[in-house]
Amino acid sequence: MQKEKLLPSKLPYVGTTIFTVMSGLATREGAHNLSQGFPSFDCSPRLSELVSHYVKNGYNQYAPMSGVPAFRESLAEKTSRVYGVDYDPETEVTITSGATEAIFCAVTAVVYPGDEVIVLEPAYDSYVPAIDLNGGVAVYVTLDSPEFKIDWQRVKERISPKTKAIMVNTPHNPVGTVFSKEDLNALADLVRDTDIYIISDEVYEHIVFDGAVHHSMMTHPVLQERTFVCGSLGKTYHTTGWKIGYCLAPKALSKEFRRIHQYITFSTVTPMQYALADFLKLPEHYEQLGAFYQRKRDRFNEALKASRFRFTPSKGSFFQIVSYRAITDEYDYDLAIRLTKEIKVASVPVSVFYADKKDDKLLRFCFAKDDEILDKAGEILSKL
């Protein structure tokens, strides 16, 4: 038998993403899946009806490369309404096949071989591969647990003449922190009068808690002019499987962004875009999202109070991280696997979000689940 020839890898350090690993294991083990970040409940029946309407009425061919005009207009109107920032739907709003594609296109648009990109870790796992595939160099600034506050002086010290971009994420996945107005000002002070771009992952923009406000990069004039704001309607409307994201960026940035986008997916699924264009005109659905998920967070956290896990309530996203130091000193990856197999509750080990797999004895649980699942998982975890 001829020996299989191995293809040299551009990402030799990358295996199967942790989300696929843990969701697959949860399925095989019949475990409660609090690992991968997707809701266990469906979208609004009204949104489903709108999709059905457009499918049945023939809106099933290619959408324009930059997105259905009505959808881009609705998104621009909603952005102006929420943030008081105006983007031209014709030249500054681009629809993508998920926020991951938007992030990749933004990185590809500005990063050339040898450029440095500052990454605040723990960081979502698609950021660094996008940098590497474009020949860039990730420069890490590690946020310290348990508060994970950004030390902007430390960020400043990592900036060099080769720095091309800084990647930010608020509300944060996996740790659930949110940027303050002071954070925006500090970041603006760092990049003012430079050619450094900002790539901002804001997919959980409407999921903030306890009266907090989402401070988008677009709301600061110094940041807005140099930022690719990457968002997701999948997180907002419980439709992660539709993979519909977007990028908001000034005209010059969007022009280069679209050069890349057109050769990755060209365009995104058509009937969903028309449906979302209509649905965005009903603001109550995203205005109530924070309160909806805060109830989920509080329910799960209440169930964990009787446990030996320790945590600070998440400030945003639909993730809660917990410390298990009082339970075991196991490596977090091993513990996540063991708990999925033995007690049938799946989580994500936080070490996977660090370049050196830093183990702070933390697990990430997704509370975007039905109440019965949260109650049962909390009950099981409290017995550890």
From TrEMBL:
Cofactor requirements of the protein: pyridoxal 5'-phosphate
Keywords: Aminotransferase, Pyridoxal phosphate, Transferase
One GO CC term, this protein: cytoplasm
Gene3D superfamilies named among the record's database cross-references: Aspartate Aminotransferase, domain 1, Type I PLP-dependent aspartate aminotransferase-like (Major domain)
NCBIfam families to which the protein is assigned, alphabetical: PRK09082.1 (NF006569), PRK12414.1 (NF009079)
Family: Belongs to the class-I pyridoxal-phosphate-dependent aminotransferase family.
Name this polypeptide is given: 2-keto-4-methylthiobutyrate aminotransferase apoenzyme
Organism name: Cyclobacterium xiamenense
